[in-house]
Every structure is written in C-alpha cells, then in structure tokens.
UniProtKB/TrEMBL annotation:
Protein name per its UniProtKB record: Helix-turn-helix transcriptional regulator
DNA-binding region(s), residue ranges: 42-61
Domain HTH tetR-type: residue ranges: 20-79
GO molecular function: DNA-binding transcription factor activity; transcription cis-regulatory region binding
Ribosomal protein recorded as keyword: no
PANTHER family registered for this protein in UniProt: HTH-TYPE TRANSCRIPTIONAL REGULATOR BETI, HTH-TYPE TRANSCRIPTIONAL REGULATOR RUTR
Annotated InterPro entries: DNA-bd_HTH_TetR-type_CS, Homeodomain-like_sf, HTH-type_TetR-like_transc_reg, HTH_TetR, Tet_transcr_reg_TetR-rel_C_sf
Coiled-coil regions listed: none
Amino acid sequence: MTKASPRKTSQEKPLRKDAASNRVLIVEAAKRVFSEHGFSATLHDVAKEAGVGVGTVYRRFANKQELMQEIYEEQIEELLGILHTALAFENSWECLVHYLENATRIQVRDRGMAQIISGQDMSSEVFASSKNRIAPLVNQVIERGIQDGVVRADAQGTDLIFIQVGLINIARLVGSNRAEHKPDTSELYRRYLWLALESLRKHRPTDLPLPVPALTTEETHLIFSHHD
C-alpha cells in the first residue's frame, strides 16, 4: 500500500514565493556589488546591499562561486551579443570598432565583467568556458579585417584582449583619483582606445613589423588563469 503524499499547506506557497523573491533580490544586489567592487566582494557585502541577513544569502547560494556562476552566464551572453552584432556588419573595420568599443565599455562600467576577461577570482573551469565561447569569435573579428586589407597582417585576436586589459586599467587608474577639482576622466580611456585602433589599421603596403610576436589563445589563457 502506497503512502499518500503529505498535503501541502497553504502556508508553504508564500514561503516559496519569498524564497524566489529573495533569490532575485540577492542576484540583483550581487550584480551591483560585483560591478563596483569586482569579485573580491564578499557575501556579507551582497547581503548588506540586498537588505537581507547573510544567512538568507547562504540558504540560496552555498558559496560565492555559486552566486558568481549565476551572474557569469548573463555577462557572457552580453559579450557574445556584442560579438555577434559586430560580426553582422558588412564592413570589417566597423565590425572591429563595434566590438572593441562596446566590449571595453561594459568592462569599464562593470568590474565583474572585466574580471571575466582577465580571469581574476574566477575558477579555471569557468575561465576556460568563457575562453572557449568568446575566443573563436574574437579571432573572427580580427581575421575579417586582415582578409579585407584594413587590419595589419600580423594582428591577432589575443591583441584585442590585451588592448582591453590596458584600457580598463587606464579607466581604473584615472577613476580612482579622488582629487576635489579633478577633471572629468570618465571617457578618457576612449582616447587610448582609438589610438589602439589606429595601431591595428593597415596604413601602408608593408607595415613595420612588430618587435615581438603575439601570444596564442592558449598562451593567453595560461597567463590569465595563473596570475596572482
């Protein structure tokens, strides 16, 4: 004889709704906290931003990595969306400009997003996953420009990653200045973005060779996944 399933009381439904509501509240708070402070922020920081106890956060997410994974997928999809939009441009130079401008912009805005690119505070599995999904499309962006003769022949997809890392650090450096009468530097990184773009452009039949070769995708991944 099978036992009847215990009846669900009417009090359980509001609890489930509260749990779902708390989960959304925590994830949205985590996005804001990680955007401003990066993934070095703690679950206590997230709980404070969400206006809930840290125990509530731990009931929804076993650890910070689990919460980061929830946000990570959305961030990767945003980057992939930028890449797919860029690759839809018929003009390969516009494709490159769209990708580099928009990918850099969202990383300047969101420290958590920037850490996906650089691999900071990310597990090796998560970082490898992002590399496998993003790198082939980044390579397509640069290869189209080379094939169309608008990008120098020795440029590589990994060059675009290092350019973004440099631009993000410029934005962080000038943004951290707390001088009372400092100039508005929120868009200063874009000056160097365009200087970087001009350095990628093919200007003459034979561009001067670069002093050292680019790293491969695997070498770049190895560096970012093993730095302090």
